[in-house]
What we know:
Strands 11-12-13-14-15 form a five-stranded antiparallel sheet, with no helix packed on it. It has a four-stranded antiparallel sheet with strand order 3-4-5-6, with no helix packed on it. A hairpin with a 3-residue loop joins strand 4 (31-35) and strand 5 (39-43). The relative contact order is 0.12. It has strands at 9-10, 16-17, 20-25, 31-35, 39-43, 49-53, 66-71, 77-81, 86-90, 96-100, 113-118, 124-128, 133-137, 143-148, 150-153. It has 155 residues and is an all-beta fold.
Amino acid sequence: xxxxxxxxxxxxxAGQFINPGDVATDTSxxxxxxxxxxxxxKFDPGGTFLAMGGGGGTANGxxxxxxxxxxxAGGNVYVSDLYNHRIQKFxxxxxxxxxxxxxxxGTRQLNRPSGVAVDPDGDVYVCDWANHRVQIFDPDxxxxxxxxGDAQELS
Length: 155
């Protein structure tokens, strides 16, 4: 519980934040931070700025409200793209791999995905905020199940 360190300041430049949403570390100890305005930033374990990824928009690798963040055992980075209603997957170096989800209420559809987590098997858990559910996907974006009150299997 002892304070260790802090970094960042208000702003839109490298190492600055306006609306930070989530933080995650990878297997090398690098720290990733989502920011609704500054998208995704990567820092080394000591807080030195390494890279900024994304930009505003709807194309692959762009965001409209980068929010939730998780990494998998291979170092890949998953980011929930709140207002584009999707999850985007990147290499540890920030290269776009894939995305899944689209706006809606059906299977594999999302409405403001806010949180994301990856379990040891690589399954991706998505807090589908406005649909009031958690959807579970495989690493390639195929729906495994959806949790709505009582667990309901999806086909």
